[in-house]
Amino acid sequence: MGFGLVFIGYATLLFFKIIPIEIIGFFIIYLGLDKLQASEPSFKYAKYASVYMFFESALSSLLWISRYTGFPEAEGYNISRLSETVEPLLYHAGLLIFHVFLYIGIIKISKATGYEKGERRSKFALVMTGIFYISEICSAIIPGAARVMAAPLAVFQVLWLLVNLFAVFSCYMMIVNDEILEKEEKKYSEYMEKHKFSGRNKKLSAPSKDNKSGGKIYRQRKNK
User: Which of 43, 114, 144, 187 registers the highest number of CB atoms within 10 A of its CB?
Assistant: First the structure.
């Protein structure tokens, strides 16, 4: 369920360029990471980063509304300068930290479950994150680069978000937690009791819930 919430919340980031809904997305992401933290403690850092991004997105939404209403400008506040300088810096710094911690958590949980594709996809997404932000910095400090790189960066950002979204979705499809396993076992037990199977068959056929590590762990779905 945790990865499902993160996926839903992250999907909203793709639409922020149209309407300011990132604040909703990061709230949903926070809920998902809070669930994932119970199984992989490393997700707590991404959760803290999502809290920061929630408040930053609230500021961004207010600035977006202000630009279209013009009310603060009429009161003498230079909202345009704030939205063009300080706010983008706060946004990109927080987003970078969020993605780094998010993929550290995914890499760790992928290793714990033996989900090698998830680990590789997360590392690839981290590389794309680094390329995106290096390009952003270059476009900001190199004279005239912003105009030339604006369109390519916009396209690359969309591709980067899609790669991140797919990586999270693959984890949602391939990894389940103990809570889901317990529900599956409960349904199985009810099914066995209803059909009056023998105790021996129940013992042989029941889903395994062994955990050699001694703690909560995610595991790869067997039917994928």
Answer: 43
